[in-house]
Every structure is written in structure tokens, then in C-alpha cells.
Design a protein that fits this description.
The complex is a heterodimer of chains A (559) and B (285). Chain A is an alpha+beta fold. Helix content of chain A is 47%, strand content 18%. The radius of gyration of chain A is 32 Å and the shape is elongated. Chain A starts with a strand and ends with a strand. In chain A, 47% of the residues are buried. Chain B folds into 2 domains: 117 residues, Rossmann fold (3-Layer(aba) Sandwich); 126 residues, Hypothetical Protein Tm841, Chain: A,domain 3 (2-Layer Sandwich). Chain B starts with 5 loop residues before the first strand and ends in a 5-residue tail after the last strand. With 285 residues, chain B is an alpha/beta fold. The chains are: A alpha+beta (559), B alpha/beta (285). The interface between A and B is large, with 47 and 40 residues.
Chain lengths: 559, 285
């Protein structure tokens, strides 16, 4: 390979190297892109999809030694088209195809061709999408290109033009949440748009290679960053980038010196300009090093990756009251639950308010009245979930405002959960469509009552003293299994007590046993118990859920 | 004299058995299942279904699925046209749930958009399969394009697809049907009985126990009789599917198939589930 950049622009081999470097850098950000997910679940795949698309694209040119920039571009685009995965990958492939088409037969790429090709790329991508959505990769591509167009008459060098494009893309990316409400709601930017920006950043930071091809890293070496990142799950640290300007800069030396400072290190450039990109725990270290070396620093960017990670929506815990709806629902549900786990179960099942309470900690009428007031619905169902709380709930219902408040006499959280699932199922069936009349409320109550009756609940607790009850000799510290206010069995161990209690109440129609484990029980312990129970009761299905309740190691539902 | 001027194409999510595909010369383009670094075509051959479903619960990273690439779509149509198809009716997984239609559209445009009639089936698995099957039968008989498209519409109107989702774990992780999983977090063993219609999945009821869910599925299926065709669907639960078929034997038509759902769909739903796709006899009227 000879000079890769000459007066007429960038040639094919130089473009190939820049692409290799950009893809290598992109690979280090796959997880970050994946995590930009509007759904509160760790299932994002935009990063991996775009990476696959780029990898497949590169496979078309990896063995190519061509100075023809149009050929490299065309084959890269072809590879992207063949390998496109996911929406963002597909749009990326269309951008690349449009870009390549515009280059036509040009042998070298100069700034004006680059600008025209970007413009065509955007047009092509917009045409490829049935109904383009703004606030996505398309918007970022378009706005970046529009900004570049404003500089059409400036006679810029290609790297400068690329920098302008990248800056504009970054700015556009930050605006995506304003254009797409779901992004704003989730507190993220669009993942595909982020992917595009990172790819462009990779192209821009690889442009130093255009002057020193012999120092370019192989794509394989540059692409190995994923494992490095994923091995560091404990800390996300800072993403530090800067340019070092000077004379006789030694890339190999800089790389060697910075290697121990952090991870995902990238040092590219030439003797007068070196771009450093590194992930570190302490951002002062690489900057300090660069200053000490005598180089002039420029374009310093420090980002806190830890915060970016923490800002992921599913890690936010919002304790604020739910927003008042514009129009009140037909009904809302209040449940009483001991323990954070059980509270989460009721909330997940759509309870408007969960009052903390249970055995030994009974809520007051006022607690109920406050909860009723918070429910923005024309009528209210209360699930007291304990026989000692039903009365209080009824009193609250009588003294509540004009709204209809119904108390379902559930005597255990297990019954309450069954009743709530039945209510949701009743809603699914669509039988409540149409009017919100009293008849519908009565049918809903009927469903809930029936479901509560169908489930059998067992509570496991520890005896606090010796006693004789119901013909059973109970020692202090024994584990008691009670059901419906009756003591079923007493055993020396939790396992014995649970197992004997199941044997006592088990009926032919029972198929599912749910164990809600309390705050004194380790998950590991609970899993072991389930393993052993499954062995004894092989025909039953077991489900383990964190309840977090005090005093009761296990609350058990049998249905 | 020309034979089979119109040819029928579909993606692998239609779940049609290979005998029907071969007999009626239907062309199937595979979707992809991505496991780690691998992207495997879901063509019934490259990926061992049973092994896949057995491993699914213990996979550390949930597999993802993806549409064919636009380039593959283009090559797929080009081959059909080269083989003598004058027009292609191409029936696919709903736009709302997948990117397949979009890439097929790009592929069609690259060859000759005029010659490819793209159909959003608004259905899944054998719900798509019925449309493809009937379209291909008519194409073989030499029916016109409008007649075929009209028949597809009638089939769609007389199709119901119901399923019991054994655990919400996979749908929740997949994130594709956010309405259905909204609020599911702690109690994953809620079995919704779902209906596929209008390109979406909605819940008809929820149950914590299998027997209650199955009773509901049975009632829903019986409501669809008299049946022209029936598919019992399952994901790694052939025994459950056979047992269910026994319980509705009296309404099962001649054309009854037991179908294991493709991994492209199954990866989002998870093993254990069973379902039905019904085609009521009235579609012919």
C-alpha cells in the first residue's frame, strides 16, 4: 500500500482501514446500545443487530486490496444489505447503499463527493421506510447531513467535514427524546440513532489512519473490545477521549503507557495528532499523562458511563404516587400486604394502593381512608388479606366518601392474589366492556370471591412457647403450619412442617403450589426446599416468589 | 398453455408442514434465530427444534429473532421470477410484530414491485399457514390474483388462533408484546389465554393453573366448529397437544395437523405452551 490520501481524496484501501477501525470501535459499544431500550427489560438487541450488519458488510471487503473507493464502498454496502438485521441494521444498510450509489465510479473520495453521497444516503433510507418515524436513526442521519450541507462552500478537508457530521449527529441524537415521546418517558435516546452516531464517531476517530496506514490496527485486534468490557461488570467508569497535538508523537509509546491506566484503549493517529479513547475509573490519569508528555490537548470529552448505566429506566425506583388520571377508572383496588415482595406482586397485578400490614401489624381505618382517597376511580375494592383486618376495612368503607367501596373478605395474601388475578382475567374477557354499571361490579366481585375460595392457603410460623393445641403437642421453636385459622401440623424443621401440611390439605384437583418466602429466608434455601418438595410431590408444579414478610418464613398457596 | 402463473411465497413463521409446502410448490423464506454470535435460518433444517426448545430455559442470554435481509428477499423473489412465476403472492408475519414485511417490500421493489403482491397476514403461525395454504391451492387451480387475494381475506376472517402461554417469562424478556406483559413482573406463572387477531396478541383470560387454562382453550375451540381445517400448536409439548386434540376429537376435521411452532416465534413464547388455529367452514361461502 502506498499513500492512501492524495490530492484527489481518500482511496479504497484507506476507506477500508477507516471502516475496520470504526467497526472495531463500534463493537465496544454493543452493550451500551443494547441497553438503550424503551422497555424496562434487559432484552435490547439493536447494538448486536447493527454490529452483525457491519461485520457482514466488512466481510465483503476484508480480502479486497483495491484503491478504488467506489468499489470498496459498493461491496461494503452490498454486504450490509445481505447481512442487515433488525430495523436499525436495515436502515443502516440502506444508508450505505445510497452512499455507494452516489459515489458511482469515482476512484477517490473527496469532501464534495462525500457530502453528496451522505445526502443521497439519507434520501435512500427515507424512501426505504414505509412511514418514517422521526426521533430515530433516520432523523439523526438527515439532520447531520443537512448541517454538512450548510458548509458546502467552505472547501473543507474530509476529516473536518466528518467531524462536522459527527458533531451534528451527536446534537441530533440528544434531541431524539423530544421527537419521540416514548423515549422521553423512558429516559433514553433512540438506540438505532445512538448506534449510527457511534459508527460515525468511529469513522471520524479512524481518520487519523488516513495519513499513517502502516500503524493501523487490524480489524480483529480492534474488534476484540466486547469481551474486555463485559468482563468488567463491576464498574462502568468514565469514557475519556481527547486529541494530543505535538511533534514526533509516538503512538506505540502512548499506547504502552496508557495500557495499564484503563481498558478498551484506542490510540490512533500520526506523529502530530493522536486520538486517545479509553475507559478508566479515574479520568484524571490519562489526561494527566497526556499533559505531562508535553502534548497540547484538544477535544477533551469525559463521560460518566456509570451514571449512563444507572439511568437505565428499569433501575429507577419511583415511589411517587401514580399520576391522577384525566378520567377516573370504573374501579380501583387496595390491598394490604406485609413485605416488599408481596407489595410488588400486588402492584404488578395493578393495585392502585398497597397498605403495608398484616398479622401483628394491622392498618388503621385512617390508613384505609388515605388509601381510598388516593384511588382515582369511581368505586373501590379492598383486599384486606387477613381475618383481623377485614373489620377495619369494612369500617373504612362505611366512613368513606360517597363512592362505593366493597371489601372482599380475603383472609390471606394468597387469597388476595387469586382474587386480583381473577379480576384481571375478568377484564381480559371483555365482559366489562360497555357500561361501568353496578351489575358489572357485582360480576367482578363474584369472580373475585370464587377465585379466593378456590385457593387453599397455608402459613408457616414458629411457635414462641410450649403448648398443647388441637391435640398437638407443640414445642417452643417448632414450626407451625396453619390454614384458615386452624393449626395443621407442628414440625421440628420448616421442611417437615411444609411437607406434612401439604400432605394434609392436598386434593386431587391441586396442581400448583406457590411459596412466598419471608425476609428471614435466603433464596438459595427456599430453592432447596422446593427441590426437595418437588421430589416428594412430583405431580405438582412449584413456584417460588419473594414475599419479604416478617414472622412467617413461608406463605403458601395451593390451587 | 401456462401453468401456475401465480406462485405463493411466505416466511417460515407460517409453520406449514413440509408435505403441503412441497405439494403446492410454496416458496418459504426463512427468518433467523440469533443465539449468541450465531444467526441461524429458521428453515426447519439448520436448527434442531427439539434441542433448541430443551436448551431455551437454561440459555443465559435470550435468543433474539430477525427478518431476512433485504438482499436475501431480493434474491428470493428473483429466483421465483426466474423459475417462471408471473406474479407472486407473498404472505407474511404482521408488520406490527416484525420487520419481515418491510424487508420483503424492499426485496420486491428491487426486482419488480408490480409483480409481487405483499399480504400482511395479521396472524401468526398456522393462522398465516391457512392463508398460504388456501392461496397456494387456488394458484395451482389457476385462479386469478384478485380471487386469491379475496380468498385470503375470507380465510383470515374465519380464522381464530388461541394459545395458553405456559409462563410469561419469555414474552416478558422479548418485549415484543408490551400490552400483554404490562404489569407482569413478580408472578411469572400466570398463564394467559391469548388470541391472535388483527396483527396483535391480546389476553382473553388469565389463570394460574393449567387445567383451568385448558378448559378455557377447549371452550374457545369448540365455539369455532364446524371446522374446515384445524391445527393443534405446541412448543416442545407434543404430549399436551395430543391430549388436547383427544379432548376435542368430535369437532376435529379431516385436515387436522399437530404443529410444533417455529423457534422464531417459540423463542418469544417459551416451551410448554399449546394452542389452536381454527378455520371455520364458512370461509368457503
Amino acid at each position: 500500500m502506498s499513500s492512501c490520501r492524495n490530492k484527489t481524496g481518500v482511496d479504497g484501501n484507506a476507506l477500508k482501514q477507516v471502516l475496520a477501525s470504526a467497526i472495531g470501535q463500534f463493537s465496544q459499544h454493543i452493550e451500551v446500545i443494547n441497553e438503550m431500550n424503551v422497555f424496562p427489560v434487559p432484552d435490547g438487541d439493536t447494538g448486536i443487530n447493527m454490529y452483525h450488519t457491519l461485520q457482514r458488510a466488512y466481510s465483503e471487503i476484508s480480502d479486497l486490496d483495491s484503491s478504488d473507493v467506489a468499489e470498496v464502498s459498493r461491496r461494503f454496502a452490498y454486504g450490509a444489505l445481505m447481512g442487515a438485521r433488525g430495523n436499525s441494521g436495515t436502515i443502516l444498510s440502506q444508508l450505505l447503499k445510497g452512499f455507494a450509489e452516489q459515489l458511482g465510479t469515482a476512484e477517490a473520495l473527496d469532501t464534495s463527493q462525500f457530502a453528496l453521497a451522505c445526502k443521497r444516503a439519507v434520501q435512500f433510507a427515507y424512501e426505504a421506510v414505509t412511514s418514517p418515524v422521526e426521533g430515530t436513526i433516520l432523523t439523526v442521519a438527515r439532520e447531520a447531513t443537512e448541517t454538512l450541507e450548510l458548509h458546502a462552500g467552505d472547501d473543507l478537508a474530509l476529516p473536518k467535514a466528518l467531524t462536522i457530521l459527527v458533531r451534528a449527529a451527536q446534537a441530533s441524537l440528544r434531541r431524539t427524546p423530544e421527537l419521540l415521546p416514548i423515549l422521553k418517558e423512558s429516559g433514553v435516546v433512540d438506540s438505532g440513532a445512538l448506534g449510527l452516531v457511534l459508527f460515525l464517531e468511529g469513522l471520524a476517530s479512524g481518520d487519523g489512519k488516513l495519513d499513517s496506514p502502516e500503524k493501523a490496527e487490524s480489524p480483529v485486534a480492534a474488534g476484540s473490545g466486547v469481551a474486555m468490557d463485559s468482563s468488567r461488570d463491576a464498574s462502568y467508569g468514565y469514557d475519556v477521549q481527547f486529541l494530543m497535538l505535538g511533534k514526533d508523537l509516538n503512538i506505540a509509546q502512548i499506547r504502552q503507557d496508557l495500557e495499564p491506566v484503563g481498558w478498551s484503549l484506542l490510540v490512533v493517529g500520526d506523529h502530530s495528532t493522536v486520538k486517545v479513547h479509553i475507559h478508566v475509573d479515574n479520568p484524571a490519569l490519562p489526561i494527566d499523562y497526556a499533559v505531562q508528555s508535553g502534548a497540547i490537548l484538544d477535544d477533551i470529552v469525559i463521560e460518566n458511563m456509570e451514571l449512563q448505566f444507572r439511568r437505565r429506566p428499569w433501575q429507577e425506583t419511583s415511589s411517587a404516587a401514580p399520576p391522577k388520571h384525566q378520567t377516573a377508572e370504573a374501579y380501583g383496588v387496595i390491598a394490604v400486604a406485609p413485605g416488599d415482595g408481596l407489595r410488588a406482586v400486588f402492584e404488578d397485578l395493578g393495585c392502585e394502593a398497597v397498605i403495608r400490614g398484616g398479622q401483628g401489624r394491622n392498618p388503621s381505618v385512617e390508613d384505609f381512608l388515605v388509601a381510598i382517597d388516593r384511588v382515582n376511580a369511581s368505586s373501590v375494592f379492598i383486599l384486606p388479606n387477613n381475618r383481623n383486618i377485614i373489620m377495619t376495612a369494612r369500617q373504612a368503607a362505611e366512613s368513606a366518601d360517597e363512592r362505593r367501596v366493597d371489601v372482599l373478605p380475603t383472609t390471606s395474601v394468597v387469597q388476595g392474589i387469586s382474587a386480583l388475578i381473577a379480576l384481571r382475567s375478568f377484564e381480559d374477557s371483555g365482559e366489562d366492556s360497555g357500561e361501568d354499571g353496578g351489575g358489572d361490579l357485582d360480576s367482578a366481585i363474584g369472580e373475585m370471591r370464587a377465585a379466593a375460595q378456590q385457593v387453599c392457603s397455608i402459613e408457616i410460623t414458629q411457635a414462641t412457647r410450649d403448648s398443647h393445641l388441637g391435640g398437638l403437642a407443640i414445642g417452643c421453636g417448632d414450626f407451625l403450619a396453619t390454614s384458615d385459622g386452624q393449626i395443621l401440623v407442628a414440625g421440628a424443621t420448616i421442611e417437615a412442617s411444609v411437607s406434612d401440611a401439604l400432605a394434609k390439605v392436598l386434593k386431587a384437583e391441586h396442581e400448583l403450589v406457590t411459596l412466598y418466602y419471608g425476609d428471614g429466608i435466603q433464596e438459595r434455601e427456599a430453592k432447596k426446599l422446593i427441590e426437595r418438595l418437588s421430589f416428594t410431590y412430583s405431580e405438582l408444579e412449584f413456584d417460588l416468589v419473594f414475599g419479604g414478610q416478617e414472622l412467617y418464613p413461608y406463605l403458601i398457596g395451593l390451587e | 398453455m401456462t401453468f401456475k402463473r401465480i406462485r405463493v411465497a411466505a416466511d417460515s413463521v407460517c409453520d406449514l408442514p413440509v408435505e403441503i409446502v412441497r405439494k403446492l410448490d410454496i416458496r418459504i423464506i426463512p427468518t433467523y434465530v440469533n443465539i449468541g454470535d450465531q444467526s441461524i435460518p429458521d428453515d426447519g433444517a439448520a436448527l434442531d427444534r427439539q434441542a433448541f426448545y430443551r436448551q431455551l430455559p437454561s440459555m443465559r442470554v435470550q435468543p433474539t429473532t430477525s427478518a431476512p435481509s433485504p438482499g436475501e428477499a431480493e434474491a428470493f423473489y428473483q429466483e421465483m421470477l426466474n423459475d417462471g412465476a408471473e406474479k407472486i403472492v407473498s404472505i407474511h408475519v404482521p408488520d406490527r410484530l416484525s420487520g419481515v414485511l418491510n424487508t420483503m417490500r424492499l426485496g420486491a421493489r428491487a426486482v419488480d414491485a408490480e409483480r409481487v403482491a405483499l399480504v400482511d397476514s395479521l396472524q401468526l403461525t398456522f393462522g398465516i399457514g391457512f392463508q398460504v395454504w388456501v392461496a397456494a391451492e387456488l394458484a395451482v387451480e389457476g385462479a386469478s390474483l384478485p380471487d386469491i387475494l379475496e380468498a385470503i381475506e375470507r380465510v383470515r376472517q374465519h380464522t381464530e388462533v388461541y394459545a395458553i402461554i405456559d409462563t410469561m417469562q419469555y414474552l416478558q424478556r422479548s418485549g415484543r408484546v408490551s400490552s400483554l406483559v404490562a404489569g407482569i413482573g413478580t408472578l411469572l406463572k400466570i398463564k394467559p389465554i391469548v388470541r391472535v387477531a388483527d396483527g396483535d396478541i391480546s389476553s382473553l383470560a388469565r389463570s394460574r393453573t393449567w387445567s383451568r387454562a385448558e378448559a378455557k382453550l377447549k371452550a374457545l375451540t369448540q365455539d369455532q366448529a364446524p371446522l374446515d381445517r384445524l391445527a393443534i400448536l405446541h412448543i416442545d409439548n407434543r404430549l399436551g397437544a395430543e391430549r388436547f386434540l383427544d379432548s376435542i376429537r368430535e369437532i376435529a376435521p379431516q385436515e387436522t395437523h399437530i404443529i410444533e411452532v417455529c423457534p422464531t416465534l417459540g423463542a418469544h413464547i417459551g416451551p410448554g405452551s399449546i394452542g389452536v388455529a381454527t378455520l371455520n367452514q364458512d370461509w368457503r361461502n
